[in-house]
Design a protein that fits this description.
2 copies of one chain form a homodimer. Chain A has 375 residues and is α/β, with parallel strands linked by helices. In chain A, 31% of the residues lie in helices and 25% in strands. The first copy, chain A, has a 5-stranded mixed β-barrel with strand order 5-8-6-7-9. In chain A, helix 3 crosses helix 6 (219-229), helix 6 packs across helix 7 and helix 7 packs antiparallel against helix 8. Strand 13 of chain A pairs parallel with strand 15 (346-351) of chain B, so a sheet runs across the interface.
């Protein structure tokens, strides 16, 4: 647990990456209103829930949201009263997660060159906030105590093929004390989304966790990794760092620099190459709610297994997920295991089992003259 | 073909019975807007199509529409410009078809005590207007030439179990000349909706036609039948006849008399008992479009057998019937043989095969606080 540069004296930072295309929850989600801007589960948008979860650990002024230009307006609405408006930064174009993490490090570094910060996705569902906060505090402690990249891994409960996995190594150390103590492990390797048999083997071994895109580290550690493993990207990011240090208008420099940055994920660019990655297994529940059918398990179903929100009647049907909106009455008769979502301007009807194919449908929507307002 | 009372010199009359509860085409149809007020098939409401079909045979001033109080407003809208407003008569309460036929006879009788008139349903779909008009003219000729009750029977093309059947007897006579000549048959008996095996036997025999509720007769013939077979009902109807002869306000007398009339169908009350019923087999196409799935065959389907109206996308689905409304986009992914109907305030999703069970769903809608505006 050697420590060279990072400070553990000041309050930590959180940078929430609020991106996403808004495809899998169409028609509720749209390009300008993706999953994290919707109350897919719960009463508020998932982004607001994410902000609420880190409250108490990280001061509002230390909490940033990085989003896209097209979503900036809606993101600002959701963040109102939760974090300062100046802490919302819009990427002029999408450049994958490595660029976003570089931007995050620049934002935090301008405030505290040794700052410790978490990068968190905006659109996950976590109910056990207490366990979440203990884990996050432990990750901050680890990243403040040593020059490591801490990933929070999710112990798998099924052989999912939609996530990358992280294979853990030896115990790296313990952080925290008493009931809130957490064990952190070294990381053997990152593996990509596996086929089912491999996923089953990972699950059985007990050595693998899901890579949920939650990272905690210090500014110097991240910057050193960019310099070492992604020098080209680092050169671009440097311009952003300089602009922030000079207090130049950020939007202008992002507009100039961002389109020149290489598109690459932070996993590929840094984590898979770094030798100082450690993993803290999450003790909280976690769901990335990947598509409509995943929503159902977060709601109480009726006796026939139907989950309904809004004005809904299901007659002689089982296992349906039905979302209405705005007083419109959605009725199902004699159908099973369907997803039916009604919004003000569009309705979707599909079997739960076909939710992964929604892109094929949206491709057709995209061919319409009015695609811009439908997608 | 003996003739005693009716006159064949004056123009005939048509009385269209525009009743119906609006259940089977919910959510497009409602109590106040049943099937005949909707363009279920075609561009105009079925009632308007019915009025258009009799134009050229019967003058507009001789065409009446009997409807219910709750539908009167919408019926008046549809009839505007097609028939005089005074020819629309609203029953204050529904009393089945015998009472409506008695009212029809009273309305025609007040204009022409020997008038010949047709009673026609408002909500059937008929494409071959030329054949329809030839048949209707022939029926008028038969009813003008003899004291008979002419039913227009529909030669069955399938062993339907949802209609009553009429068994024909010997040839009664020929009406019309040349290409427009039609054979009229005596009627052996009326039979109720049969079980499937019986319906199959009827179809095979060639002796049976469907009872489509289309009757042509003269005022004296109808009045004589009421007097002979339904004297109680006749006593009530007499008050209506007297009021019409005296030109008393019709609405007031209907309000007083109608609730006292017995509920019975004209088939039970008169036709099954009368000995002077004859049948003219229709030479036109006919469909009563009994429920949503029946609509599909009147529209051009796409290559996958989907029929769509409005803004609809079906991706990887077959045999669906999808009705949108008002620019709302209805999308289906990976589903087959569904009926999906979207209206401004309600959406229905059901398999085509379950269309007959819609009443069970509507019973649930009826339990809602806002049932009045939903049904």
């Amino acid at each position: 647990m050697a420590k060279t540069t990072a400070s553990n004296s000041s309050a930590p930072y959180v940078v929430i990456i609020a991106g996403g295309k808004g495809e899998r929850f169409w028609p509720q989600s749209r390009t300008a209103r993706p999953k994290h801007l919707l109350p897919v589960v719960g009463q508020t948008p998932l982004l607001a829930q994410t902000l609420e979860r880190v409250k108490g650990i990280v001061p509002a002024k230390n909490t940033f949201v990085i989003t896209s230009a097209v979503q900036a307006r809606e993101v600002a609405k959701v963040c109102r009263g939760l974090i300062p408006a100046a802490n919302i930064v819009a990427e002029p174009v999408g450049r994958d997660t490595a660029a976003a993490v570089g931007l995050a490090a620049a934002l935090v570094g301008a405030r505290d060159p040794n700052g410790v910060f978490a990068v968190l996705p905006a659109d996950h569902v976590i109910h056990d906030i207490k366990a979440y906060q203990i884990d996050l505090r432990a990750a901050f402690a680890a990243a403040g105590a040593a020059d490591v990249m801490v990933t929070i891994g999710i112990p798998p409960n099924e052989p999912a093929t939609g996530f990358g996995y992280i294979q853990r190594g030896e115990e790296w150390g313990r952080v925290g004390a008493g009931k809130t103590a957490r064990t952190v492990f070294a990381v053997k390797r990152f593996v990509e989304k596996p086929k089912l048999e491999l996923a089953e083997a990972y699950l059985k071994s007990g050595d693998y966790v899901w890579n949920a895109g939650m990272f905690v580290w210090s500014v110097p550690v991240v910057e050193a990794a960019f310099a070492a493993y992604a020098p080209e990207l680092d050169a671009g990011l440097k311009k952003i760092r300089v602009a922030l240090r000079k207090k130049s208008p950020l939007a202008a420099v992002l507009k100039r620099v961002y389109p020149t940055l290489v598109r690459i994920s932070v996993d590929y660019a840094l984590l898979e190459k770094s030798t100082n990655v450690v993993m803290l297994p999450a003790s909280f529940d976690w769901d990335d709610v990947g598509a409509w059918p995943a929503v159902a398990k977060h709601f109480k179903a009726d006796a026939a297994g139907n989950v309904a929100r809004g004005e809904v009647i299901v007659e002689q049907g089982r296992g349906n997920l039905v979302f209405g909106e705005g007083g419109h009455l959605v009725t199902l008769l004699g159908v099973d295991d369907l997803v039916v979502v009604h919004t003000a301007d569009a309705t979707l009807v599909m079997p739960k089992a076909r939710a992964q194919d929604i892109k094929a449908l949206l491709a057709k929507v995209g061919l319409r003259k009015d695609a811009a307002k439908r997608l």
